[in-house]
Every structure is written in structure tokens, then in C-alpha cells.
Amino acid sequence: MGSERPTRRHRIDSSIWLTCVLAATLFLTGICWRIHVLQICQSLIASDQKYQRLLEEYQEMNRTQRQRRLQNDELNSTLEYRTTENSRLDLSLRTCLKNVSALDNNVSVLESKLFVLESNHSTLENKVLVLESNLSVLSSNLSDQRQMQTHLLDNFRHLEIKYGALNETKAEICQLLSSRKEQAFSQDWIRNEDRCYFISTIERSYDEAKQHCWNSDSNLLEINSTEEENFVIKAVHDQRSSFWIGKCKAVKVASHVVYQMSVGKFVCSECKWYSHLYPCSRDHHRFICETSAALCPDISEKIQELCQQPVGPK
Predict the structure, then answer these.
(1) How far is residue 258 from each of residues 38, 165, 222, 288, measured CA to CA in Å?
(2) Per-residue exposure over 176-209, b if at least 16 CB sit within 10 Å of its own CB, e if not
(3) Are 185 and 297 in contact (CB under 8 A)?
(4) Nearest to 312 by CA among 198, 186, 157
(5) How would residue 185 be classed by pLDDT, with cut points 50, 70 and 90?
(6) Of 61, 80, 210, 276, whose CB has the highest number of CB atoms within 10 Å?
């Protein structure tokens, strides 16, 4: 019994809750329907007002149409009187229309030509703008070129002055070299592979012999190999003479070296000082000069060829 009472209460509560939900739903539904009915009424009122306006406009249009009909009747009556005159004017109008059509054709042709001219004009304007920009660039480049030309002319004048001074110096040097070479190569030179040798026929002191070799762009002979020594022995015809040289084979360079003949051979000996008043370098002997083959006697021709060419651009 105790368990049945709560179930009944639960059922009663649920039925009450459902009743409340249904009542609220019906209330909300009624409110929605009222709102919808009010909207429908408002739309009906608005459509009725619109209908009234349209009706008034229609009546106004009927009035205006009646007036226009009356006016058209009047115009037709006037047109009937003027038909005869219009028939007379038809021929002139047709001719005018023909002329107008011809003029229209000419106008259309002119319009097409005008369009072409306008397009060409726009193209020419663009080209003029491009040419003006190019002209400005060219003018700026021309000013730069003129400045550069002025600078180059100044440099050219400066170089001409320098070339003139160099040519004068070259002429002096060539004159000096030609005089020295003519003196230096008045005797014969002997070539052996890449070296040239000068064997003097006159006797000089050590300093004079050394100076003579120096004047011909050479030095006193320095023997560096047996082959070179054998060549010099064959080249010397008079084997009774003694020669000033710079160095013997396998011997250190001495201050004054004498190359002498002894028992069919040449032997080297360093000159001995006799006294402080008369050193042995004052003794007179023949001498042998040595230089590179590139500086042999034909060098005078090379110097002459170089001296004939001016300094600077041709």
C-alpha cells in the first residue's frame, strides 16, 4: 500500500506537467496564429489601398485616352485636308531622303576615316613621347661625350708633349749608342752557339780592357766549361800572347786574371802587385770580351731600326 501511493502521486504529477505543457503549447500556438492573422490583415489592407490607387490611375488613364482620341480626331480631320499637299511634297521628300542617305553614307565613311586618323594620331603622339625621351637621353649622352672628348684632347696634348720629350731623349740615346756601337764593333766577333767572343789585337791595361768590353755591352771572358775553353784556345791564333779575362774554369773570380800560354796550353794566373806605386793592372795585355749571342755585331742594325721608329702612336 505504501508503494502504490508514490506511484499514484508520480502519475498525477506527470499528468499535471503534461497538461501544463499542452496548455503552454496551445497558448503559444494561439499567439502565433493571432500574429499571422494580423500580418494577413495588414497585407489585405495594403493590397486594398494599392487596388484603390490602381483604380484611380486607371480612371485617370481612361480620361487621358478620351482626350487623346478627341485630339486624334481633330488631327485626322486636319490631315485629310493636307494629304493633297503632302502628295505634292512626297517627290521632294524622296529626293531629299536619297540625298540624306547619300550624306549618311558619306558621313559613315568620314567617321571611319576620322577613327583611323585618331588612332594614327594617338600612335604618333606615343612615338613623339618616345622620341622626346630618346632625345633627352641622347642630349645627356652628347654632353657626356663632349666632356669626355675635352678630357681626351687634354690628355692627348699632354701625351704629345711627353712623346716629343721622349723622342728627343731617344734621339740623344740613339746617337750615343750608334757612336759607341760603331767603336765597339769595329773588330770582328766570333759566335759559338749562344755566346759571342771578341779577341783584341791591341794591348791595353786591365781597366782599359774592362772599359772596352763594357762599351760594347759585354764583359771580360769568364770560362765556365772545358768546351768553352777549347773553343777559345782554337780561336786564339797567336798563342804567344797573354790576355786579360774575368774568370778561369773552376777558379774563383779574381780581381785581375791573366790568361797566358805555357807549354802549348793556356794557364790562368792572378796578376801580382809589384808595388803600391806601380800595380800589375797597369801592365798591357790583349783581352777577350764575351757577350750573349743576342748582342752580337748585328745589334747595331737592330738599334738603327729601333731608332728610326718614333715614340708614340703612328
Answers:
(1) 151, 46, 12, 11
(2) ebeebbeebbeeebeeeeebbbbbbeebbbbebb
(3) yes
(4) 157
(5) very low
(6) 210
- Please give the single-letter amino acid code of residue 55: L
- Sequence-distant contacts of 152-155: CB under 8 A, at least 24 apart: none
Q: Phi first, then psi: give them for residue 312, nearest 5 degrees.
A: 105, 180
The C-alpha atoms of residue 280 and residue 170 are separated, in whole angstroms, by: 41
The range of the structural domain enclosing residue 138 comes to 100-184
Q: What is the 8-class DSSP label of residue 311?
A: S
Is there a domain that residue 56 lies in?
A: no
For residue 166, count CB atoms less than 10 angstroms from its CB and return exposed for 0-12, middle for 13-18, buried for 19 or more. Answer: middle
Which grid coordinates belong to 154?
A: 687634354
Residue 224, φ and ψ in degrees, nearest 5: -115, -5
Same domain, 111 and 202: no
Cell readout for 277 is: 806605386
* DSSP tag of 185: T
Residue with cell 801592365: 283
In angstroms, how far is CA 28 from the centroid of its own chain? 87
Q: Check if the beta carbon of residue 218 is closer than 8 Å to that of residue 297.
A: no
Residues 177 and 196 grouped into a single domain: no
- Which grid coordinates are listed for 284? 798591357
Counting Cα atoms < 13 Å in the Cβ hemisphere of 149 gives 6
Residues 122 and 170 in one domain: yes
* 172 and 223 housed in the same domain: no
pLDDT per position as a tens digit, 102-159 = 888 888 888 888 888 888 988 888 999 999 989 989 988 898 899 999 999 888 888 8
Please determine, for residue 279, whether its predicted confidence score (pLDDT) is greater than 70: no
Q: What are the tens digits of pLDDT across the range 33-75?
A: 878 778 888 888 887 788 888 888 888 888 888 888 888 788 7
